[in-house]
């Protein structure tokens, strides 16, 4: 990343990502729990009269859903881990945003030092942050520390702004992360064909069972 306190930035970024890292994983787990419930419900409803078929079909479907669930959750975990290492600070838009925010530094320092100001201001309004309290910052007499802190904060603000822009208001960026590779698409198409064959087989078995029931009824 393009600034001096690189290690400090990475630690803060990783800490922020860690705080929310469980959310996409939890969402993925809930999603696959729902899929599993729907699949089991549909299979149960359509195979109530065929116990052995129902047992085998539900077992196979559950195993398939669990396999896909594991793959999906692992993919989400990979995305979260990659985000901990990703930096957008080489983006020219980031540099432009950071430079714009840094133009407020002198005003920020002056408000804290309170030079020729009576009474001393309790807060300052900053672009990107809004109104913030500054009284507690006056205990830091070293201006260089305040400048470094301001620099780091503005870089964080610029970073997250660029990140949100990349993600897009509708989450399109996240969707792009989850785009399936050609190999996965091919496997999914193969799976769809297998499901089609299973459905046709189920219909054939149902017809055979109906004929057996009708034949038994005629013999009674």
Descriptive key words:
mainly alpha, 2 strands, 8 helices, 220 residues, two-stranded antiparallel sheet, rod-shaped, single chain, 4% strand
Task: List the helices and strands in order.
Answer: HHHHHEEHHH
Uncertain stretches of 5 or more adjacent residues? none
Number of domains: 3
Instruction: State the shape.
Output: rod-shaped
Q: How are the strands ordered across the major sheet? A: 1-2
Q: Helix segment count?
A: 8
Query: What is the percent of helical residues?
Result: over 70%
From the alpha carbons, calculate the radius of gyration and give it in angstroms. Answer: 30 Å
Share in β-strands: under 5%
Mean pLDDT: 76
* Number of beta-strand segments: 2
Structural class: mainly alpha
- Largest beta-sheet characterization: 2 strands, antiparallel
How many angstroms separate the termini? 84 Å
């Amino acid at each position: 990343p393009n600034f001096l306190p690189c290690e400090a930035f990475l630690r803060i970024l990783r800490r922020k990502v860690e705080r929310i890292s469980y959310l996409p994983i939890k969402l993925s787990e809930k999603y696959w729990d729902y899929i599993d419930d729907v699949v089991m419900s549909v299979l149960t409803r359509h195979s109530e009269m065929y116990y052995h078929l129902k047992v085998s079909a539900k077992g196979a479907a559950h195993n398939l859903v669990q396999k896909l669930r594991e793959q999906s959750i692992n993919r989400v975990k990979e995305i979260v881990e990659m985000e901990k290492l990703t930096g957008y600070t080489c983006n020219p838009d980031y540099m432009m945003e950071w430079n714009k925010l840094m133009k407020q530094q002198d005003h920020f320092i002056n408000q804290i030092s309170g030079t020729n100001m009576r009474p001393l201001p309790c807060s300052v309004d900053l672009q990107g942050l809004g109104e913030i309290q500054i009284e507690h910052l006056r205990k830091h007499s070293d201006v260089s520390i305040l400048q470094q802190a301001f620099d780091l904060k503005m870089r964080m603000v610029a970073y997250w702004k660029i990140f949100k822009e990349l993600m897009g208001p509708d989450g399109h960026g996240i969707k792009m992360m989850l785009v399936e590779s050609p190999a996965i698409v091919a496997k999914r198409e193969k799976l769809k064909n297998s499901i089609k064959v299973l459905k046709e087989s189920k219909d054939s078995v149902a017809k055979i069972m109906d004929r057996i029931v009708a034949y038994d009824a005629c013999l009674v």
